[in-house]
Amino acid sequence: MADKLKVVITDNQKVVKVQTGIRMLLRRCCHAILENDNYEGSAEIGIIFTDNAQMRELCRQHFGCETEKDYIALSSEKSDSSIQGEAEPAVSYLGDVCISFERAVEAAAKSNRPIGRQMVTLTAMGVLELLGYTPEKSDDDDELRQRVELVLFQLGFPVSSSYYISK
Hints:
five-stranded mixed sheet, alpha/beta
């Protein structure tokens, strides 16, 4: 389990108002992912809310493409030794997860799901990528999806919309 986790959330967009509770939900999401992954040590993760135009620019800068993504994970292998004290372990900066909040709201409305669920899904996928889980690297194609569904379940979101109720 992570010793300490710092999640820094920055809102760089002004298109959509960020609903109350989203920031705390995403912090809990990051904690759940690191706990499920048995992450050791202290870590810092950045979550950056952008709009569609900013996301296009980030994709162009970092990947040289014009495609519009819901999120991107920008990994960092650096450890900040200036934070390290005698009793404190080094804090590992895992990287940033940039999420188009504008696109997330559109996707949530289109799929008739709560925005919180959509944001947890995107954040979980981004943080898992920072930890090295990508569809290309996974032995099982469903591994990433299963890890995301576990976090959704742990945070109280139903995994399936189909229920059987017996009387």
